[in-house]
Design goal:
single chain; about 290 residues; mainly alpha; 15 helices; disordered C terminus
């Protein structure tokens, strides 16, 4: 049946699938049979076959997808989208979820929530350019959507396009309305700059500035432990960064201010007398 379907003989394929169905009506056989019925134009039988598949295997996505495809081909977009949404709930893997979300977005392009979900499926598979396209489509419909701006920044970071990511984070800060949103954006900036710097390397000045701004917001919110942690990270990285502001606030919140080590003056260095090699030293007997 598969071979005949592949070579463009759906009628012959359907005959084999019918025989397979009579012998062992597994979910796989039922799905192939239902699809073949749809291809040969036996739409009522195909719908019954897909519905039977959904009834017997309600936690599998294939039956819902098949029904959705069938309804869309018949011009019933709303019923098709309804089935695709049911399929998305049961989709077992991210590839299937991406496929179903694509179908929904094509039929309902203004469904912003589904575009966000599709973008997340793309990012889960490292398809960052595809995710970026979805976030841009969201911004076309909702120009000040902070989550789309954050998504664009987050999608550029793994592409090592750090300046582009910062530009989107700055736009997100400009539209952020709450303290929590601003704290979240500054956190993404810190993460971006940490990746730019590299593992075990000092945070960049932009990252330190983001830490400082986040610390102030956290202090305002009464999150003193978190604010102290941000300030301590700044001080440990660069004690001179905003030293007239960071150090007093860090000390006020109970942080550790450790002065950098200094060299001892020459006058305080103890002189060690080195024996004159011309002086005979007592001979020490050798012990085996």
């Amino acid at each position: 049946g598969d071979l005949l379907m592949h070579h463009g003989d759906p009628e012959g394929a359907l005959e084999r699938y019918q025989e397979a169905y009579r012998r062992n009506p597994t979910s796989v056989v039922q799905l192939k049979r239902a699809r073949a019925l749809a291809v040969v134009g036996e739409l009522d039988d195909a719908e019954r076959a897909f519905r039977n598949l959904v009834r017997q295997f309600p936690y599998r996505a294939e039956g819902y997808i098949g029904l959705g495809d069938l309804y869309v081909e018949q011009g019933d977009k709303d019923r098709g989208v309804e089935q695709y949404r049911l399929a998305l709930r049961q989709a077992p893997d991210v590839t299937t979820r991406e496929t179903v979300a694509r179908k929904i977005v094509e039929l309902v392009p203004d469904d912003i929530d589904m575009r966000f979900r599709l973008a997340s499926f793309f990012r889960e598979q490292y398809k960052y350019d595809a995710a970026i396209a979805q976030y841009e489509a969201i911004l076309d419909r909702s120009p000040n959507d902070i989550h789309a701006l954050l998504g664009l920044g987050d999608s550029h970071v793994p592409k090592t396009q750090y300046d582009a990511a910062l530009a989107y984070y700055d736009k997100a800060l400009a539209v952020a309305e709450s303290r929590a949103e601003k704290v979240a954006v500054y956190g993404q900036i810190v993460a971006c700059e940490a990746q730019r710097a590299g593992r075990d390397r000092p945070l960049t000045e932009a990252g330190l500035e983001a830490l400082w701004q986040r610390a102030l917001l956290r202090q305002e919110a009464g999150q003193l432990n978190e604010a102290r942690a941000d300030l301590q990270r700044i001080y440990d990285t660069d004690p001179e960064f905003r030293s007239d502001e960071v150090s007093p606030l860090l000390e006020e919140l109970g942080g550790q201010l450790v002065a950098p080590p200094t060299e001892e003056p020459d006058a305080l260095v103890e002189e060690v007398e080195i024996p004159d090699p011309s002086i005979d030293l007592p001979e020490v007997p050798f012990e085996e």
